[in-house]
Prior knowledge:
This protein is mostly helical. Helices cover 56% and strands 0% of the residues.
Amino acid sequence: MEQRFLTAWKKARTEAESLGVRLRPLPEQPLDSARRMLSGNRDSDGFGHLQRLGRLDLSLEHLATQKAYTALFTDEQVNNALMRLLDAGFRFS
């Protein structure tokens, strides 16, 4: 599951970068980094830009709320991601 998540995150990041969203390189421990981002009070890298483009589906927050990956995160981390998306006006389909 972890490898599928990392593959999906890298794919989303590549697509975001193709839209002109500047992202920092992934650290050596990307899953640990994702967990820290979702635990803190700040949005993930590029979140605001993706929001302006109407592409929050490419954000770490969106990926973390996907049923296939929620087990990788604590309930608090998933809830933080969900609240950030809802606060940004994201509509789940």
